[in-house]
């Protein structure tokens, strides 16, 4: 039996296979009618067979009456928000519990279970567990959408850095030889040799805490950025930020004879992209003993301020200018690539929307 489109009032509805469900779609306006149970079924399939999808039974706020009528029972449809924390409008019939979805809302509806679970993750409060973790290890806890793809390049970079470190670190003489050959020195580069160290210095670390700190941050932000970019582009941008970091450090002190090592500059580049693409994520910060979820914007502003102070004081063994240069490169690349990253990642785009208010 052909039914009438609630929107166009014509009998132009055709059967469509939509994520495993046979639904009715209007050939004129593209809207889709879901009979009772069909939307849950389709969304479960769209979300990799997640059986917990129950949006039909857990609709968000009632937003008032719609001008359209149900195509099964001629009752007036009612506007609802599909989710509690995110604005996706659907129209529901109170009599037969069928659901009408406009063409413009369809992609948002399909992605909504993933957005929902991301929001649950992002809205989690801090706990004794997260407090202890940060108190003991001095590292932030991340609240963000889970990466959908396995971040192979992130794992590869972690493995390389760790294996290389333990490869030379057991033997002081060997460590010295490795640093002589592969650490970055501004004076050598300006004399026109040791160009390979522009790459190799990123895979060496001066001490265990230096290594662990860098690897933890790479692990936290790397998976999401690799997921957003794809592995190959992720690797290229990671290295590019590392080169920019080295360039900044060389410019800050040309002719320096100090050897520079570490992945920090490349990872600082990831920070720049992270704060632009995951602005509703949170990282915890510990003010003495008080733990607070901060937006990446605020978190990395504090991190940048500490580096600027360090660079200004110019003391110690930390390559502050490399951090600042890598971060600036990441911000620039992140800003430039943001439109295409959002286009190819609808869930990310939805999580970036202004209507989302994350609890921190
Ligand atoms: Zn229509
Ligand atoms: Zn109805």
UniProtKB/TrEMBL annotation:
GO terms for biological process: proteolysis. Keywords: Hydrolase, Membrane, Protease, Transmembrane, Transmembrane helix. It is found in: Membrane. It is a multi-pass membrane protein. GO terms for molecular function: serine-type endopeptidase activity. GO terms for cellular component: membrane. Residues 4-43 form the Transcription factor zinc-finger domain. InterPro entries: Peptidase_S54_rhomboid_dom (IPR022764), Rhomboid-like_sf (IPR035952), Rhomboid_protease_S54 (IPR050925), TF_Znf (IPR027392). Residues 197-337 form the Peptidase S54 rhomboid domain. The chain crosses the membrane at residues 152-168, 202-222, 234-252, 258-278, 294-312, 318-337. This is Membrane associated serine protease, rhomboid family. It comes from Ferrimonas sediminum.
């Amino acid at each position: 039996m052909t039914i009438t489109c609630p929107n166009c009032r014509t009998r132009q509805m055709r059967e469509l296979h939509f994520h495993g469900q046979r639904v009715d779609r209007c050939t004129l306006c593209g809207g889709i009618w879901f009979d009772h149970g069909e939307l849950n079924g389709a969304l479960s399939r769209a979300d990799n067979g997640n059986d917990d999808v129950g949006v039909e039974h857990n609709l968000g706020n009632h937003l008032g009456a719609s001008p359209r009528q149900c195509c099964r029972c001629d009752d007036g449809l009612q506007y609802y928000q599909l989710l509690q924390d995110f604005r996706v409008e659907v129209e529901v019939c109170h009599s037969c519990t069928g659901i009408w979805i406009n063409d413009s809302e369809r992609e948002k509806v399909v992605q909504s279970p993933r957005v929902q679970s991301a929001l649950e993750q992002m809205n989690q409060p801090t706990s004794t567990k997260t407090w202890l973790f940060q108190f003991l290890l001095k590292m932030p806890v991340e609240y963000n959408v889970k990466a959908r793809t396995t971040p192979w390049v992130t794992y590869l970079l972690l493995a390389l850095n760790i294996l290389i470190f333990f490869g030379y670190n057991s033997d002081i003489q060997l460590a010295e030889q490795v640093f002589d050959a592969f650490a970055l020195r501004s004076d050598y580069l300006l004399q026109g040799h040791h160009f390979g160290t522009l790459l190799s210095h990123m895979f060496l670390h001066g001490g265990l805490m230096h290594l662990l700190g860098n690897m933890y941050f790479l692990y936290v932000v790397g998976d999401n950025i690799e997921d957003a970019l794809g592995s190959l582009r992720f690797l290229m941008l990671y290295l590019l930020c590392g080169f920019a970091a080295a360039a900044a450090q060389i410019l800050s002190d040309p002719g320096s004879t100090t050897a520079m090592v570490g992945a920090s500059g490349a990872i600082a580049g990831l920070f720049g992209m992270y704060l632009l693409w995951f602005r509703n994520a949170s990282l915890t910060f510990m003010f003495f003993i008080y733990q607070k979820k901060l937006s990446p914007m605020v978190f990395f502003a504090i991190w940048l301020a500490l580096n600027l102070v360090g660079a200004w004081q110019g003391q110690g063994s930390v390559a502050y200018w490399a951090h600042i240069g890598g971060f600036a490169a990441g911000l620039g690349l992140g800003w430039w690539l943001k439109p295409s990253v959002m286009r190819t990642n609808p869930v990310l785009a939805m999580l970036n929307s202004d209507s989302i208010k994350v609890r921190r």
